[in-house]
Write a structure and sequence with these properties.
Elements lengths: L1 H61 L5 E3 L3 H10 L2 E7 L3 H16 L4 E6 L4 H6 L7 E6 L2 E7 L12 H10 L20 E2 L14
Parallel strand pairs: 1-3, 2-3
Antiparallel strand pairs: 2-4, 4-5, 5-6
């Protein structure tokens, strides 16, 4: 009799254990299916992001991004700042300090394809130089959405000498938010100048409007 009771108890325990095991198996299967679905959703989202980025890169390249190029007319300047959301423009003359800037901007242009890097000779662009109040050379204008948002004037913010590194200039441009840069700049912040509208044909005064 006792043996029979023991057998019944063991059968009940096994039955309960089997039911619990089956339930756990079902839950694991459901979780695995959910994980696969999540992975597929993330994969599709990532593919869409990559596609959009590829389209952006293609457009940037078509606009001349990726190269540091010289422009020879003020008309070209206005066309470029209208076409590209972010532009770094070096106002230069034929001297050693400007050649130093050329070297660093040539490197950064290839690293930051999201931004158009150009140079223009200030003395041959008197209207533009006067409108943007370019006095000291070299001056780098940081332009976003066709507006000059900031300037790097001379080397004062880059250690005060011509032996600054490309990384230091990169940090300064990143602080001006004209390139995609996630690093933290150790340079002292400069006073942000008044924003000037540089859209061609604007009827505003020379100092233009600010955002």
């Amino acid at each position: 009799m006792e043996n029979r009771v023991q057998e019944i108890i063991e059968q009940q325990v096994l039955s309960v254990a089997k039911a619990v095991e089956e339930k756990i198996d079902d839950e694991i299967a459901a979780l695995e299916k959910l994980d696969l679905d999540d992975i597929e959703v993330l994969r599709e989202r990532r593919l869409q992001q990559m596609k959009k980025m590829a389209e952006k890169r293609s457009r940037w390249v078509s606009l001349g991004h990726g190269d540091y190029s010289e422009i020879f007319s003020e008309k070209d300047f206005f066309s470029i700042v209208k076409a590209s959301d972010r532009v770094v423009c070096h106002f230069y003359r034929e001297n050693w300090p400007c050649k130093v800037v050329d070297k660093h901007l040539g490197i950064l242009a290839k690293q930051h394809i999201e931004t158009r890097f150009i140079k223009i000779q200030a003395e041959k662009s008197p209207f533009l130089a006067e409108k943007l109040k370019i006095v000291v050379l070299p001056t780098i204008a940081l332009i976003k959405n066709a507006k000059v948002e900031d300037y790097v004037v001379g080397f004062d913010e880059l250690g005060g000498s011509d032996d600054f590194s490309t990384e230091e200039l990169e940090e300064r441009l990143g602080k001006g938010e004209v390139i995609f840069f996630e690093g933290e700049s150790s340079l002292k912040p400069s006073k942000k100048p008044q924003t000037r509208n540089v859209r061609h044909g604007s009827k505003s005064n020379d100092d233009s409007d600010s955002e």
